[in-house]
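Quick entry between incubations.
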Amino acid sequence: MSKEIIGTPQQWEQLEKELEVLKNEPGPVMKAMQAAQAIYGYLPIEVQSKIASTFGVSLEEVYGIATFYAQFNLKPKGKYTIGICLGTACYVKGSGLVIDKFKERLGIEAGETTADQKFTLDATRCIGCCGLAPVLTVNDEVYGNLTTDDVDKILAKYND
Amino acid sequence: MKEVTLKINDISVTVPEGTRILDAARQAGFNVPTLCYYKDLCNEGSCRICVVEVKGARSLVASCSAVVAEGMEVYTKTPKVINARKTTLELILSNHNRSCLSCVRSGNCELQKLSQEYGCDDVAYTGDKTAVVPELPNAYLVRDNSKCILCRRCVAMCEKVQSVGVIGANFRGFNTTIGCAFERPLGAVDCVACGQCINVCPVGALTEKDDTDIVVEALNNPEKTVIVGTAPSVRVALGEEFGNAIGTDTEGKMVTALRRIGFDKVFDVNMTADLTIMEEGTEFLSRLQDKNAALPMITSCSPGWIRFIEFNYPELLPHLSSCKSPQQMFGAVIKTYYAEKMHLDPKNIVVVSVMPCTAKKTEIFREDQNASGYPDIDVVLTTRELARLIKRYGIDYNSLANGEFDDPLGKSSTAGYLFGATGGVMEAALRTVYEKVVGEPAPSLDFKAVRGTKGIKSATVDLKGTKVKVGVAHSLSNARQILEDIKAGKCDYQFIEIMTCPGGCVNGGGQPIVSSEKINAGVDVKALRAGAIYKADKKSALRTSHENPVVKTLYAEYFGEPNSHKAHKILHTTYHKRDKM
Ligand code: SF4
Ligand code: SF4
Ligand code: SF4
Ligand code: FES
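Done. Structure below.
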């Protein structure tokens, strides 16, 4: 089992503190995973190992839960998460081409994060603004009526 | 207990309250198919193949989980039931890599059998398929998720019975697969290689790594002397692969078959089980007298168990006996003593062992297992692989005459034979240790307290005033319990036998697979196979390891005495901590 700490010492300390509190609660594993994700933004192997050993379950059990629920991330998220809707309405209006262009520009696949930790690219299901199809979100901002020409403009806006 | 009367297909049966409908139906003479249900192990209720109609119920009922009620009317074979089961099967088959032609489980596959019974064999299926991604190679097990039906019997085995828990269901929906954390291959996690997951898999998704071709190649190489040795429990199970009843001892036919396959010498690992008793018994007695020695001493013949303690309790490694396992002693003796005696170069000897076990396939690659400078054992075949080889060579097993093992390393006591069943190593050790200490044979050689399939057994033996308390555990969840007791200072045993597999080697991960249909019907495989061993022991004239004439010769001609310097060099080994993932 991996013993190294990950992230900042503060993050690790915070994790240990929250796990300690959960020790007396029923069904603590899921709660611990949520708490850990709030601290780290994702669930690295070190954190999953820590949760497993704290609550006496196997690492595979934690990993199984982490991959079952969409709310858990196995990889760090970038500063900006670009979520492109691949629901039916968006897809027929060309969101597939848009996501391909983002993949090309960022050099990553859907679900991945750029090496500089700036962008995460996600394919999402319908987000309920089909009138604007195709749509995408960057963190909380929504962009609609997209074409492939918009890709560079959007990326430029987050050029900080 | 309260009884309940109900009707199955209009036939009245009376069963205890709480009985599963499935079991009540069997009692009425109707078998209901199952896939995910496995008695005392897995009751996921997920596959729905076991559905039946219950009068008054709105939908079909899973008979593996639902229990009987007074006056219940159950129908197990109505068109509605049959159609529902067939649809379930077709859904499974639509994402199944149907390669029955060469699949090792063909003929012994629970999915194939049902598909045939329900007439699903020539339906054209379309739709997405789970990719065939062969598991990265390891020395012992092959996983093929394209054949997995997600019954999770393997998961329950690994987690509940073995308390290892390295496999589980990952992802969800169509993407669900059985795998390890972070998609690592089994060889890169703390899997102990026990193979128990293989034994409960209904299909060909989990199989042993097949090494028959390596053996065939050696047999066809004129420069090699190819020597085979068989573990105690192989002979009480091999016959099952040729239609014999569970618990049939076919030692004589096994020996003849091995000779016909072409091995130059057919020896017996029971012989080195006797040798193990001499070494381990002596080691135990000297630890008992040494104030600084680690007690309890724990046996070391089961390589899955060795991996388990190395991964999970490295701080307790000093408790392990330093003895090599009988398999490794077998190879070591052949490539040293026997090679010298026969003027053979160990380089040109290939030692094949036939084992009930997949973990044995990993054991041969351990450090400090090459007494002659060459690996003690070259290839390990499981009982199943040996059966495969016998069939491939067209040997008509059941018509073979009984053969006898070759001299000299084929002679053994039935104490060595006992190693095949849980408690057997302890019983064999007690027979010898008692006589060594007390100076006369134990009043009864039957140490019945350590027999049987109870998870943890114990006995107290009076050695001339010194009371020795021994413990026996099989399956790793029970082993874990004992180790936790040792850590907590609560263990009062001085000598402990631990076997990885439930029931011991007779039920090892390389033994013939018994269908869940039989298991669910209550067939006690472990007890039946062990029964054959105890029967042979009862009839035997040579029941203690120290009386084995070959053992005596080995010490007289070669090792001097048990635990001698030479014995240590050749017959003992070392252990080390392994990092968990
Ligand atoms: S697992 Fe069963 S059904 Fe599948 S290919 Fe093998 S024998 Fe055929
Ligand atoms: S071989 Fe044993 S330890 Fe490894 S996955 Fe199978 S059941 Fe678990
Ligand atoms: S590998 Fe075998 S036992 Fe495990 S879930 Fe798949 S079919 Fe069931
Ligand atoms: S649901 Fe009953 S056997 Fe699977």
